[in-house]
Amino acid sequence: MFCFFGLFLVASCAPARFVEPLDKGEWSVGANLGGPVLDFGGAPIPVPLSAVEVGYGLDSSLTVHGALHATSMLFGNGQLDLGVTYKFVNQNKWIPNVSVSPGVNVIYSPSAKTGKLWPMLDLNAYWNYGKRTNYIYLGVNNYFELSRTMANNQPQNHNWLFSPQLGHILKGKKDKWEMITEFKYIGPNISSEYSFIPYQGIVNQGAIGFYLGVRRKF
User: For residue 151, is pLDDT > 60?
Assistant: First the structure.
C-alpha cells in the first residue's frame, strides 16, 4: 500500500489545467501550490507541492498546455505534465460548458536512471457568471497506472485513480489575471488506513486535497 501512495502523491500534485480554453492565439503562464492534506502533529496541512505552467490557445475551443513540477526538482526528479483541453459543449442557461483534457504525467530520476509515465484524463463542467465571466467547475480527474506490479513484484491492484474536484476561477480586470481555488477528493476508491503517510481522507478512504494558483494571460 505504501508504494501505491507514492503514486498517490505524484498524481495529486496540481489542480485541473485550463478547464476553460484560452482564446485563439492567447498565451498564459501561472503557478500553483498545494496537495493532499496530511495530519501534521494533529493539525491538517496541505502538502506544499508546487508547479509552473504555460498554455496556448490553438483556437477558442482548444488549448495546449504543460507544467513543470518545481517541488519534484528539489528532490532530484524531473516531472512534467502535458496535455490539451477541448471544450465540446457551450453553456446555455443552466446547461454548463463541458471540456475534456487528456494528457500524460511523466517523472524521471537521473540518480536512479528510471522514469514513469501515467496517462490522465480530466472531464469538467463549468458555469460562467458575472461581467468578468468568472466560473465554478465540477469534474473528475483520472490517472491510469500501466504497470501490472508494484515494488517487490506485488500485484498492482489499483490501475485507476479517480479524483472528484470542485473549483472556482476568479478573474481580474480585462480578464488578464486569474485566481484558482480547488478542492479535490483524491482516490476515494483507495483505502488510506494503512498508508505510511498520514493522509487525511474520509472514513480512511483517499485524501482531501487543497490547491491555490494564479495565471496571467497575454
Answer: no
